[in-house]
Predict the structure.
Amino acid sequence: MTDGLVVVDKGAGWTSHDVVAKLRGVLHTKKVGHSGTLDPDATGVLLIGVGRVTRLLRFLTALPKTYTGEVVLGVSTSTLDASGEVTARHDMSVTLDEVRAAAATLTGNILQVPPMVSAVQIGGKRLHELARAGIEVEREARPVTVHRFDVDATDDPLVYRIEVECSSGTYIRSLAEDVGVALGGGGHLRNLRRTAIGSFTLAEARTIEAIAASEDQAILPPASALRDYPNVTASRELLGSGKVLERSELGVDGDGPWAVLDEDGRLLAMYEPHRGDTVKPAVVIA
C-alpha cells in the first residue's frame, strides 16, 4: 500500500468528497482522505492523505490557511457567497480606506459565528443539511485568528480583492459579509481560492487531471506531510511499539507535537505532550 500526501489544486465544481473518490480510483486504494473541506465553488489547495497518512490528517487540518477572493458589497446572499440567492440589496458607496478599516476590525483574535452552510455539526446534524431543509438554528460564536486581511481595489467600486491568512476553522464568506455589515450594508464572497495550507502552496499543487496522467502521481512521503512541525531523530528500538517517553529521552522541548524520524528521514511516529515531563505517541506509523 502507498503511504503519503498528495497536494491537489482543486477545480471549481468538485466537492472535497469528489476529489477523494476520484483519487481512490487513480491510486487504487480505498484508504484516502482529505484534511479539510473546500467548498465546491472554491478552488485551490486541498491536502489528500493516502494509506497510513490518513491517520495524520488532523495535524494538517490544524495548519493555518491562506485564501484570495473578492468581496462584493451591496448584495447579501443566502449562502454568503455567489452561489446563493440574493436576500437583500444595499445602497452603498465606500472608499478603499474605509474597506481596509473594516477589514482591520476583523483582524487578530476574533469570535466568528459559523454560517448555516458550513459543515459544523449541531445535534448530530451538519448545518448545511439543516439549511437545505429550511431550518436555521442558533450557533455559538467560535474563536478564530485572522493573521492578515489585505484589501485592494478593482475596477468596480463595490468589488474588492482580498487576501486572508487565518487559523483553521475561519470562514472567509463570513468575513466578507461582516465587512459589508461593518460598512453599513452587506456583502458576499466570490472567486474564493485557497493558495496555501501551512507551507503547502499552489506552487506544488497539481490538478486531478495532472495527477491521473502522471506516473508517480505526485505522492509526497509521510515525513513530508509533517514538514511544518518540529522533528527529531530516534531509533525504532527507543520507540518500541509506541512507548511513553521522557522528554529528555526523545530530545524534545516546546509545546509539540513532534514528528519522529529514523536516521534515514522516514517517519516513525507523531508524539505529543503527556503528563509531567513525558511525551506519548499520537500516531505510530512504523
In short: The mean pLDDT is 90. The chain has three domains: 4-63+199-225, 65-197, 231-284. The domain at 231-284 is CATH 2.30.130.10 (Archaeosine Trna-guanine Transglycosylase; Chain: A, domain 4).
